[in-house]
Amino acid sequence: METSSSELLVIGGGPVGLSLALGLAQRGHGVKLLDAGPDPRQLKTPPPARSTALMPLSLETLTDLGAWPRVAHMSQPLDKLRLIDDQADRWTNPVIEVFSADEITDTPFGSNIINTDLTAALLDLADDTDGLSLHYDSAVESWKPGEVTLADGVVMTGDLIFDCAGRHSPVPAQAGIAIKDHRPNQIALVCQIEHSIDHDNISTEFQRREGPLTTVPLPRSDRDKPRSAIVWVHRPENAEKLGDLDDDAFQKTLQSALRGVLGEITGMRARGGFKVGTQIAETFHGPQLALVGETAHVLPPLGAQGLNSSFADVAVLLSLFDHPSKVADPDMLRRYGAKRRSDVISRLTATHFLNQAIQNDRLGLDHARRGALKSLGWLKPVRHGLMRAGMRPFGVG
Predict the structure, then answer these.
(1) Do β-strands 140-144 and 147-150 pair in parallel, antiparallel, or remain unpaired?
(2) pTM surpassing 0.85?
(3) Burial class (CB within 10 angstroms; exposed 0-12, middle 13-18, buried 19+) of 352
């Protein structure tokens, strides 16, 4: 059996795994990154062009790695967040509240970028980083402390293993770490649209009975048209009906749902969808093991918390490596788990409560939710506290 050795192993070649591997290699460690899929640079058909609104901590982490300066020009700032309580089955006029980043900071809430553009920048940076090697078509089949076995029988060892492979990774179960899984019976439809009215760097979230409809600003298209990313959450039966529509019919239905905030939809691309769900591991660490990103936690597409929470994992791990300690120090792993799990639990609780409150059609809860949204206009300490909490994880940075 072939055996190779490395000081540190990172499983998963998405933006989170690449960022962590880069940060560790830049700190002088030998790192091997293992990914089950092919090298994305060799794909003839690129993956769906989903985007992510990156919040300040994520941008700081990517800037420290040297990645963000390479792609900042390909992103779009998010200056304002507009919430619309759009329960049209009961209320004629929706409640609208606008949150502006300049109320609490001199920077935007964040910046929205196409995921594949970010990944490409991280891969380019990886090619220029000493001590980091990328291994594709390297699916991890089994794990034990300090060692993984690949599907082809190759064994790789490392003083510490970081699992960033995502929600379907086999490692947590093999490490005896239970995963709590919740599926709220929703599907998110995604696409990118060109539109006639400029988005003015405003992200709009329509709070609908079935789930949110969110628009997120993107840079202008190649045709110099305003462009936005769409995340549209539905119950499965309605998502299936919409998914079966041709592009023209889907576009007309979406335009109606957007209530004219972006004007006329003049183009659409990158239609897709995914099941909405949440997961959280009972612990984020094991012997010589750290669970990172969606291996440790999966959040619903509300408030751009998903990938930003994963980058917060990376930020905490890299900050712990900045202090003198043994690489596989169990106390370091426990500190990582304690810092990150408490923050993730608070965000899961908040997003679950909001999702349930929106879907519940009881009259009293509708009044309470709408009243709470209106009150944020004049309860400035609460309003600003919520804005800061959304922009930055608790106890990080």
Answers:
(1) antiparallel
(2) yes
(3) middle
